[in-house]
Amino acid sequence: MKFSLGCLFLFFQLGATCFRSSPGGGSAGQFPDFIVVVLTLFTDTSVKKPSSPGPATNPPDPPTNPPDPPTTSAPVCERPPGQPGIFVADSVSGAKIDFQSTPTKSCPCAGGTKHYFEEVIAKRAHKPLTGFELKCGTEACVCVSENECYRPSVDTIELRVHPFCEEDVDGSCAMYMVFIAEDDADTMNPSEGSTGAAITYGSQKQPRSGTVDLFTSGRFKKAISAGCGECVKVAPC
């Protein structure tokens, strides 16, 4: 609360008159009570304003978790109906492989390719010749399971993989490991750390005729992977 200078002068004039002669027998030189009150009011003529609050601040945003990375499903190589397939490692390339028939489908995989071949009904071992031949000598390796793989004992062995199916038996198609040797005693030997036993060339022949038996006769192993210099496991693709 504030007073003008005119009001202030008026109060002091009244106070001076009263100071000179005080009515009611009061002693001169003393301010009446109402003058003291007025002077007290003039000593504090303003009312303090409440302190204004500081600038408004927004609360910090709550921490946010980073978005989950997009999930991608692994590529799937669907098998053509009824057709057998085999995983061929990247180590088998160029002159190290001779395709005797064109794969019907090839799927890139980690470390190699999955090849599928047209199904063939096996009548005799020498016909038809499809699939491929590995041409890396004793470095070649064919696996028939995760723990059973074979290598040629000599460089002169022709190591082939042929697709055949049992006649009138659904789901019987497979890739068969077949080898041709100069001597009946030449073998396909288990690779280092592999299970299985040596397979002689003579064991693939019919006892009476001496000709190579049917691939589906049980004398031949079903191959799942092939490599040169390494015995590879089948990679998902």
UniProtKB/TrEMBL annotation:
Keywords tagged on the record: Signal
Protein name, UniProt field: Uncharacterized protein
Chain residue ranges for the region called Disordered: 47-79
Compositionally biased spans, kind Pro residues: 52-72
Signal peptide: 1-18
